[in-house]
Amino acid sequence: MVLQYLLKALLMEYGIRYVVGADLSPKANDLALKKEHYTLLFIKDAGCSLYFNQVLLDFPANSLIFVPFGTLLKSNPKESREFVLIYFTESFFCRSEWDCNFLQNFFSTSVDSSTYRFLSVPDEYLFYYEFVRTHLEMARKQSPESIQHVLAFNIIKQILLLGEVYLGDRDSARFMGESESAMVVNRFQQLIIEHVSKEKHVSYYADCLKVSPRKLAAYTKEVAGKTPKELITDGLVRVAKRLLANSKLSIKQIAWQLGYTDENNFSAFFSKEAGESPKKYRNNWKK
Prior knowledge:
alpha+beta, five-stranded antiparallel β-sheet, three-stranded antiparallel β-sheet
């Protein structure tokens, strides 16, 4: 029983699945439905359809979809075409400060209504589909588990880096035509990444962005469906999880680093937002 629990905790950090029909139904209790997972979808040569936040979307053949955490995915029970789903958590990916900043910046363009980034794969790169699937499955079979994690991390990171290269020019052009609200919220989320350990007040970020707190709230509601305070809280929880998973600091030291003079206050905050205590989160990750 203990071994099964440990294996389940490990598998929650990343995985690969072949999905068809109702494979992402709530009854399947699929790990990729968890809101903390980022997801990569490899749409095969037949295309497919699935639900994004209750909206049925149809994707063309040979496409790669980058889905940020917080997106509800549900497969179409009437769908017979298969696609490949890769999922991972922020804690799994963030091995360094650079990794974390890259991940946040890569998905920060997804704060608009599209909720995902889309890349059509040229014919000459279709072999990459099979390469990724094969090597991720190989990674899951390696021993010890530390090798599994390193192999999977490097493959997923390579996918995101290639996505950044191929999407860069297109998104730069799109960004020039974005609304003011999307641009402000995009910059707001970048500032949160940089300063949330020390700055948690909405007024600080509003001043940096040269907008009023009320205006900022209107923008975040329009673009992200959240208040500025909620986005700051989300950012703070991400930093806390990264430190708990990847640093050797004590929980008390992490609390101090995040601006909490009382460890109990930090623990209460984290437990409320993450659904488990800092100690339990760290233990689940380290096992």
